[in-house]
Design a protein that fits this description.
The protein is of the alpha/beta class. The chain is built from ten helices and ten strands. The chain folds into two domains: 162 residues, Nucleotidyltransferase, domain 5 (2-Layer Sandwich); 170 residues, 2-Layer Sandwich (Nucleotidyltransferase, domain 5), CATH 3.30.420. 40% of the residues lie in helices and 18% in strands. The strands form two sheets. A five-stranded mixed beta sheet has the order 3-2-1-4-5, with helices on both faces. It binds 5'-O-[(R)-(carboxyoxy)(hydroxy)phosphoryl]adenosine and zinc ion (ZN).
């Protein structure tokens, strides 16, 4: 636990291993990101068309320590420089989480520094703080609305202060990234489907296929994407299966998801009265989504904040950053190695 000797603004190691990326980084308050490294297991899982949990856990074991050494070397750091070790404790795949938690907790124990359990979605939510604000814009600070769209989550979160999160909207079925992945798969695109589908959508005719914008015709901030996937299934089944048609369908699907998310974001901003919007998580790397929300912000008077593309998807930098913020608030985690495959974001303590 933190004690009076703990340098609360020292370098914090962050370890991410909740799914199929091994991420390691060091962040220091006042100095920013000192080093980061990422290993993606995409090739390992591609042959199965999706993440195989057992293989993910084993690969984290193989890659985590080499990546840790690489990160420290890049930052010109020794383990003795670290003030704390932060790690993703959930939500995620239990075996994968346990690898990061066990390494992080053991390292913290050996170094006699605090360990800090981080909620993966808080990492995504804070990731824009890793960036310099765009010229002429205010640095990101609460209150704001966060759209967190990844392979496992589609959340609209109201952020009154850091650590104090209110879920405003959630998906009733598939997450946005999951919808991208499943839709891409049914049209024969490789895993992970989101980037592959977005790539071919660029060449598609936006008017060729119009899919519905689920749950935009009724009030509320919840989302639903599984019906959209079925619409694509039927359109693809009845098509000529040409490359051109595949691009057209991909474009129609992408437009439908992006517009649906944009409608929900506008609604959340209106409902809360907040003027700032964070967009993060793997689907936050989608260029059409970024462009549409940035344009809406300019037209309607709200400021948009995105992490760089590499920090939209899973990474260690966002975990190190969240750890640094929690360390400064004296919020550290006890000695037990505990992970939470399911973890409600609203249960986190506010940062005073
Ligand atoms: O945040 P993330 O790396 O992992 C989770 O926490 O789930 O998000 C991965 C998800 C995948 O579903 C992937 O297909 C999607 O993000 N994704 C994209 C794009 N890049 C990644 N979806 C749409 N467009 C993209 N450019
Ligand atoms: Zn994620």
């Amino acid at each position: 636990m933190a004690n009076s000797k703990t340098p609360v603004r020292g370098p914090v190691l962050g370890i991410e291993s909740s799914c199929d990326e091994t991420g390691v980084a060091v962040y220091q308050a006042g100095r920013g990101l000192l080093a980061h490294a990422l290993y993606s297991q995409i090739e390992l899982h591609a042959q199965y068309g999706g993440v195989v949990p057992e293989l993910a856990g084993r690969d984290h074991i193989r890659k985590l320590l080499p990546l840790l050494r690489q990160t420290l070397a890049e930052g010109g750091l020794e383990t003795s420089d670290l003030a704390a070790v932060a790690y993703t404790a959930g939500p995620g795949l239990i075996g994968a989480l346990l690898v990061g938690a066990a390494v992080a907790r053991s390292l913290a124990w050996a170094l006699e520094v605090p360990a800090i359990a981080i909620h993966h979605m808080e990492g995504h939510l804070l990731a824009p703080l890793l960036e310099e604000p765009a010229p002429g814009t205010q640095p990101l600070a609460p209150p704001f609305v966060a759209l967190l769209v990844s392979g496992g989550h589609s959340l609209l979160v109201g952020v009154e202060k850091i650590g104090s999160y209110r879920i405003l909207g959630d998906t009733l079925d598939d997450a946005a990234g999951e919808a991208f992945d499943k839709t891409a798969k049914l049209m024969g695109l490789p895993y992970p489907g989101g980037p592959a589908l977005a790539r071919i959508a660029v060449d598609g005719d936006p008017k060729a296929f119009r899919f519905s914008r689920p749950m935009t015709d009724r009030p509320g901030l919840d989302m639903s994407f599984s019906g959209l996937k079925t619409q694509v299934l039927l359109a693809w089944r009845d098509s000529d299966h040409s490359e051109a048609t595949r691009s057209d369908i991909a474009r129609g699907f992408e437009e439908a998801i992006v517009e649906t998310l944009a409608v929900k974001c506008r609604r959340a901003l209106k409902q809360t009265g907040f003027k700032r919007l964070v967009v993060s998580g793997g689907v936050g790397a989608n260029q059409r989504l970024r462009a549409q929300l940035a344009a809406a912000g300019q037209a309607e008077g709200f400021q948009t904040y995105f992490p760089r593309l590499a920090f939209c998807t899973d990474n260690g930098a966002m975990i190190a950053l969240a750890g640094s913020i929690r360390l400064a608030a004296g919020q550290t985690t006890g000695p037990a190695i505990r992970v939470q495959p399911r973890w409600n974001l609203e249960a986190l303590p506010a940062v005073a």
